[in-house]
Amino acid sequence: MSRADVCVVACADAWRGDGAVLASPTGLIPRLGARLAQLTFAPDLLLTDGEATLLREDEAEGWLPYRAVFGVVAAGTRHVMMGASQLDRFGNQNISCIGDWARPARQLLGVRGAPGNTVNHTTSYWVPRHAPRVFVPQVDMVSGVGFDRGAVEIRVVVTNLAVLDFATPDHSMRLRSVHPGVPVTEVVAATGFPLVVPSEVPQTRSPTEAELALLRDKLDREGLREKEIR
Known about the structure:
It contains 6 helices and 13 strands.
């Protein structure tokens, strides 16, 4: 079992209990997580090929053209797992630019669908490198809104070190679990704002033998997941 395996399972668990919603993962590890969830504990989860075909075990099971996705978003029957160049303690996300908006040091993707996602349906985040430059006191530009700006639900933030959530009275970020072998102090040091840290922090669950077999023999035979968290 590797750290990447634990991250895949943590991403999969983000969709646990969602039922028949459209899962929209961004990145290899979140996509493996969504597929693993669909094959095990979340059989009603809907996944697409990134274009217009709904898939189950790599077979077409339905049609979802791009124009129909907006109806899914508005109905709240979607759970997206996005990336983030910056996140603050209330879950505000930046994927747009680094530096002053009027004259940024780096231009990134732009806000894309992040505002609509965060005000309409459940959102989670995947951060492959947990670091203070990602977890910042204030994002340089708000792309996806946080709980202090009207987010519907930001369920979890999965990183290469830990799982975080917002299960606090003011919806500020909390350390939910640390991955096996990661001390709490490492997560705190890699976060650029004060985290809520419970008195006892559990370990993120490890994959079962059945989940490992699916990952190794079916979903990612080439082991590409290992490269995403280097």
